[in-house]
Amino acid sequence: MKTLSIFILSCLITIGCLAQKSDTLITYNFGGNYGKAKSAETFKVYKKDSVWIRTTFNAKQVLTKSETFTDRKLKMLNGEYLEYENGKVSLKGFYLNNKKTGLWTSFDADNKPKETKVYDQDKLNGAYAAYWKNGAPKTTGNYTEDKKTGEWKINYEDGKPALKELYDSKSKVTDSTYLDIDGEPVSKAEITTEPTFPGGMKKFYMFLAKSIRYPADARNSRAQGKVYLSFSVSDTGKIEDIKVISAPHIGLAEEAIKVLEQSPDWIPATLFGKTIAAPYNIYISFSLN
């Protein structure tokens, strides 16, 4: 995982970077009349025991998601979370007080684990693994507070080692080995690359400097400090799953999220020459002069 610190100066800010008959059923439809709008996404909500279950269906009325809430207003995720593709579970996890917790597993079309990761309070904390279609480990390692720590390995599909890196407690690489399929030393770029902003990170700093505004409510209350965020750069370069890890003021957090949502597409990470989704961390530091 890459961590980025950003510092940009302005007059006001410094940016550092299964239902029973008695269950309650509510059906929502967005995008048109139920059953008529091709692009409509339908939500069915029912109460089961002490929780509320919201199931999401696409325009063809195929189940795509199931979420568990503890409140009728569906604001507090608490319990099992499932995503579906072609009728099969593609992602399974658990929320506690609106934060990812415990083991999260994604599955391939054959219902075999594709990736496993462990969360604690929305932060990656614990063992990580990604698998080849034959079930062999592709990538293994460990996260501590959203940062890579300890030994990380990447293997070829036949099990031969491709990469080994050792990270210290500050997520700095202290030792590394990169090998081709024949076991000969190669550069890291021949094995894997990190996601990056088009034109380099200086261009990203310029984008931030142009886009960010100090929120009036935060300025009026003299709020300042660092907003720590995590997001994923998809295999097509889209910024997705933006999360605020911590923030001194809700207005500053909202402004940081808004700007990231407006970001142009990135150059995605690669593994063995193919684009992949990859996590990324940044912080944006707001400071009143």
Automatic annotation (TrEMBL):
GO biological process, one term: transmembrane transport
Domain of life: Bacteria
Domain TonB C-terminal: 199-289
Chief location category: membrane
One function term, GO molecular function aspect: energy transducer activity
SUPFAM superfamilies the record matches: Histone H3 K4-specific methyltransferase SET7/9 N-terminal domain, TolA/TonB C-terminal domain
UniProt keyword annotations, A-Z: Cell inner membrane, Cell membrane, Membrane, Protein transport, Signal, Transmembrane, Transmembrane helix, Transport
GO cellular component, one term: plasma membrane protein complex
Localisation: Cell inner membrane
Keyword Acyltransferase: no
Topological type in the membrane: Single-pass membrane protein
InterPro entries linked to this entry: TonB-dependent_transducer, TonB/TolA_C, TonB_C
Signal peptide start-end: 1-19
PANTHER family in UniProt: PROTEIN TONB, PROTEIN TONB-RELATED
Family: Belongs to the TonB family.
Protein name, as recorded: TonB C-terminal domain-containing protein
Taxonomy of the source species: Bacteria, Pseudomonadati, Bacteroidota, Sphingobacteriia, Sphingobacteriales
